[in-house]
């Protein structure tokens, strides 16, 4: 459905106006996190490959930059784990050659135990890894990593990367109600955070429908209570006004219908109109196609979507 690798700029809670760059196919990841807003991982792997040609990625970024005002960041992120792209080092280097816009990498940090991955990210301006559990048991429960990936590898990789990396390191800690948002578990996390020494600790929780119904959000006041345990530079980034009730769809039908009512639109236009990632828009579009509320039509090689009662 969506063939482009560059999306936005869209507003990011952490990076302002961010031009996103998808470096891997949809849901190609080292983890299968129970809280992921994009659903279950379909290709859980540790194999690094050049999924998309470097030149094609750069051409799409340049086209996007030429089409509008400059974003605050060019962010390598998207619908999977960007460090699985074996040419990410070259992509970062060439982005910095062609633009003055800072480059950020939004990663789960799981491959930083590999020296070549650490080296690949050294030229990024900001690296935003994550750590969601303080021990192996909860790491396996929350992140559901590839079987060959261990908790010790992940935390040791984060510590080593901090020792080698001179840029800004912002560590996301994703807390889940009844699981990791327990004071004893947060204290376990804090011990690792102290060793990792991030510049910022950004605390998050479920604010959109997760991959699993048993991944529960944490109330905002509880996040603020737990934040000081993680460190003086900890901040709560979860926006609870985004939280939908468990079981409800984050992208409300009416919002999507309002976009479709104007004219037939592409998936990329839906994503831009709603300010969401194209993969998230694709998931919702597929649900509405299945129920017959919307339909698709093809003009040349481009697929457009419109309301089912719209001609």
Automatic annotation (TrEMBL):
Segments forming domain Radical SAM core: 15-248
Cofactors: [4Fe-4S] cluster
Alphabetized UniProt keyword annotations: 4Fe-4S, Iron, Iron-sulfur, Metal-binding, S-adenosyl-L-methionine
Name recorded for this polypeptide: Radical SAM protein
InterPro entries according to UniProt: Aldolase_TIM, Elp3/MiaA/NifB-like_rSAM, GTPase_Obg, rSAM, rSAM_sf, WH_DNA-bd_sf
GO molecular function list: 4 iron, 4 sulfur cluster binding; catalytic activity; metal ion binding
